[in-house]
Design brief:
- This protein is an alpha/beta fold.
- The protein is built from ten helices and eight strands.
- An eight-stranded parallel barrel has the order 1-2-3-4-5-6-7-8, surrounded by four helices.
- Helix 6 runs parallel beside helix 7.
- It is globular.
- The relative contact order is 0.16.
């Protein structure tokens, strides 16, 4: 199984978004996080319904992002939340998901997310990335500290490439998240294959 979570961003996509999702699903990543932060909940839910169908067709985990009500309405198994949203998630809502991810930017945040019941965390941004222009990456030392602080799987995010994925894994990460690369590359299968 792949160790890569693919994070979506329609604005980085050079083709029809659902066509790109299908190519990603065909490549069998560990999951696809639908992270379209500019959409309101109703538009997000409509898009999520289409993405779900594609993910189910290829048996790839579809992880919805932020919109808990939409995820519940769509009977999603997986949700990814910013840490403040995870902290406010009710016990009843938490029980609806078998996979709960949280975005963390320090070891302390990762520990708090684990204590709140998340099943994995993303840690970043590790390396400099266009998505966080002008902000230096937190580095491999940061990643190693996060990985040592929690027992849940840690996925590195931010500037991950075939050139640095081995170093990321040596820090104890379960895997990595990619966004702009997988959204914009010419050959999704090849791109993800180089990261395995």
């Amino acid at each position: 199984m792949s160790n890569i979570l693919c994070v979506t961003n329609r604005k980085c996509c050079n083709e029809d978004f659902l066509a790109r999702i299908e190519k990603i699903a065909q490549a069998k990543p560990a999951g696809i996080i639908l992270r379209e932060k500019d959409l309101d909940e109703s538009d997000y839910k409509a898009l999520a319904s289409d993405v779900f169908k594609i993910c189910r067709q290829y048996d790839v985990l579809c992880i919805l992002h932020s919109f808990v009500s939409a995820a519940i309405a769509l009977k999603a198994d997986a949700i990814h939340l910013p840490l403040p949203s995870l902290m406010q998630l009710s016990r009843a809502d938490k029980a609806r998901f078998s996979v709960i991810g949280a975005s963390c930017h320090s070891a302390e945040e990762a520990v708090a997310a684990q204590a709140k019941g998340c099943t994995y965390v993303t840690a970043g941004h590790v390396f400099a990335t266009r998505c966080k222009a002008g902000l230096p990456g937190r580095g491999l030392g940061f990643l190693k500290t996060v990985c040592r602080s929690v027992s849940v799987p840690v996925y590195a995010i931010g500037g991950i490439s075939a050139d640095n994925i081995d170093a990321v894994m040596q820090c104890g990460a379960k895997g990595a998240c990619v966004m702009s690369g997988v959204m914009a590359c010419e050959d999704v299968q090849r791109y993800l294959g180089e990261l395995k």
